[in-house]
Amino acid sequence: MPLDLSLYLVTDSTPAILKGRDLCTVVEEACKGGVTIVQYRDKTSDTGDLIETASKLHQVTKKYGVPLLINDRVDVALAVGAEGVHLGQDDMVFEAAKKLLPKDAIIGISTSTVEQAKKAIADGADYLGIGAMFATPTKTNTKAFLGTAGTQAFLSEISDSSVGTVAIGGINHSNVQRVLYQSKSPAKGLDGVAIVSAIVGAEDPKASAAKLAELIKNTPMFALTPQPSRANEVEALLQDIPAIVRKMVEAHPLVHNMINFVVANFVANVALSIGASPIMAPYGDEAKDLCKFDGALLINMGTLTSESVSNYQKAVQAYNGRGNPVIYDPVGAAATGIRRNAVSTLMAGGYFDLIKGNEGEIRQVWGSNAVQQRGVDSGPSTLDGQQKAKLARDLARRERNVVLLTGAVDYLSDGERVIAVENGHPYLGQVTGTGCAIGSVSGCFLAAHRSDKLLAVLSGLLLFEIAAENAAAKEYVRGPGSFVPAFLDELYAIRTAASKGDDGWFVGRAKVHEVKL
Ligand SMILES: Nc1ncnc2c1ncn2[C@@H]1O[C@H](COP(=O)(O)OP(=O)(O)OP(=O)(O)O)[C@@H](O)[C@H]1O
Ligand SMILES: Cc1ncsc1CCO
Hints:
- The chain is of the alpha/beta class.
- It has helices at 15-18, 23-33, 47-63, 74-80, 94-100, 114-123, 147-157, 176-183, 197-200, 205-217, 233-239, 241-251, 264-273, 287-290, 308-322, 337-349, 359-366, 385-399, 434-448, 453-472, 480-499, and strands at residues 7-10, 37-40, 68-71, 84-87, 106-111, 127-131, 164-168, 192-195, 254-258, 277-280, 296-300, 326-329, 354-358, 402-406, 410-413, 418-421, 512-514.
- It folds into two domains: 7-217, Aldolase class I (TIM Barrel), CATH 3.20.20; 251-514, 3-Layer(aba) Sandwich (UDP-N-acetylmuramoyl-L-alanine:D-glutamate ligase), CATH 3.40.1190.
- It is 44% helix and 15% strand.
- A hairpin with a 3-residue loop joins β14 (402-406) and β15.
- It starts with 6 loop residues before the first strand and ends with a strand.
- Bound molecules: adenosine-5'-triphosphate and 2-(4-methyl-thiazol-5-yl)-ethanol.
- Residues 331, 358, 376, 378, 406-408, 410, 424-426, 428-429, 432-436, 438, 465 line the site of adenosine-5'-triphosphate (ATP).
- Keywords: ATP-binding, Kinase, Magnesium, Metal-binding, Nucleotide-binding, Thiamine biosynthesis, Transferase.
- One of its GO terms (biological process) is thiamine diphosphate biosynthetic process.
C-alpha cells in the first residue's frame, strides 16, 4: 500500500495538551476522524512505559489500518512491531536504524535544511518531515521558521526525488489549505501535514481530524505548469465580465472592511453603489460571526494602531478557516518600520486571495528591492511596465494568489496570466481612497465569483474604472471634488444597467492587454 502521509498525527503527552485524557482514546478518535498515519512521540517516559503505551497504540492503529511510527526509539518500534520510526537529526543515524529494522519498515527523517534533506534522500528515507513551518507552542527550541515561501524553495531543491514530504510546525485548520498550496513548487508539493495540538489538544479529536481531512481533500491546488497561451485569451476573459458583474449585483455580497478611518465613508459608499453590503468592523473578534455570511474580508492597514495587527490576524484566521476570500491592502507598507513589520507578520500568519497596492507597497511585500515610501503615495517609480508586470506575476506565483499593482496602468496577475489595464482617469489619483475602494470592490467580486480569482478582480476593476471615465466626462465635473459624487452616480448607473441585463456599459470600453514576460 502506498504511504498516505496526508493527515499525519504526531502525539503529545504533555498535560497542557492532553489535558488528563488517555492518549490511546485520543488517538482512536483521531483515527476515526481520518488521520492517515500516527507518530508516537514521547521524549520523557521510561522505556517500559514507552513500550506499554506504544503497544496499546498499535492495537488501536491496526484496527483502522493506520501505520504507527515511533519517534526516535528503534528499540521500542521493534518491541511492539510498529510499522516504522521517525528520526530527528540528533537521533540514531539512518544506516543503523535501517540495519536493525525489518526491510519494509518506514523510516522518516526530520529535516530543516536542504542539505539534510538531500542526505536523507541519498540514504533512502521514505519521507521527510520538513519544518518548522511556523512558530508553535509544542516546540520551543526551534530556531528558524521556513514559512510557506521557504518550504516552496526547499521542495524545488529536491524536486527530482520522489521522497514523501510532510510539513510540521504550527499547522491547524486555519492555515492547512494555504500551507499546502502556497508551499507547492512547480515540480513538487507536500504530501501531507503533521498536526499535533490541533488534534491532540482539541476538545473533540475525531471532529477536528475529520475537519482537517476535509480541508486537505478540498485544497485547491493551482497548476503551476505554464498554460499554453491561447490566442485571444484576453478577449475570452472579457466576454464573461458583464455576466460576472450581474452575478455580483444579484449576490449582494457582504464585504467586511477593516479599513483606515480616512476613507471609510467613501469606501462604504462605493460598495453600496455597486450593489454590495459593506460593514466597517475593525474589532477582530467580530469576524467569527461575520465570516459566516460568506462574503469577503478586506484588511487595509492605512491607519495602523498598536492593536490593529492582532485584530487583523483574528479576522484573517476566521475567514481563512471558512475558505472565504481575504484581500490585503498594505497601505503605506514601506513608509515606516512598524508597517514593514506588520507586513511580515501578516504575510506569515494568513492567506490572502488578493494583495493589492501601489508600486511602493507591492515592492515592500515582495521583500527585496523595496523602496522607502513617503506616506501612502507610491513614491518615485523606478520600474517600467514590464518590470511592474513581472513583480506582480512573481509575487502572485510565490503566494499562490492574485496580485494587483495599481497606478496609471494597473497590472493584475495570478502567477500565470498577467493583464495590463489602462482604463481609469487621472482624477482617481487625485482623490484619496480610490485604491482602497478597489480592495473592497475586489472583495465583493471575489465573494460572488469564486472559480477564477483573476477574472473576478478584473471584473470589479473594469466596472470601477469605466465608471470613473464616465464620471470624468460629465460636463459638470471640474475636478476631484465634483468627480466624487459623479463617480458614485456612475457606479450606480452601471450596476442598475447590469442588473437589467443591459451590457451596453461594457461594449468596446475595456483597454486591456495581456503582458508577455
Ligand atoms: N493617472 C491615472 N490614470 C488613470 N487611472 C489612474 C491614474 N492614477 C490612478 N489611477 C487609478 O486609480 C486607482 C487607484 O490607484 P492608486 O495607485 O492611486 O491607488 P492608491 O495609491 O492605493 O490609492 P489610495 O491610497 O488613495 O487609496 C487605480 O484604479 C488606478 O488605475
Ligand atoms: C491619506 C491616508 N493616510 C493613511 S490611510 C490614507 C488614505 C489613503 O490610503
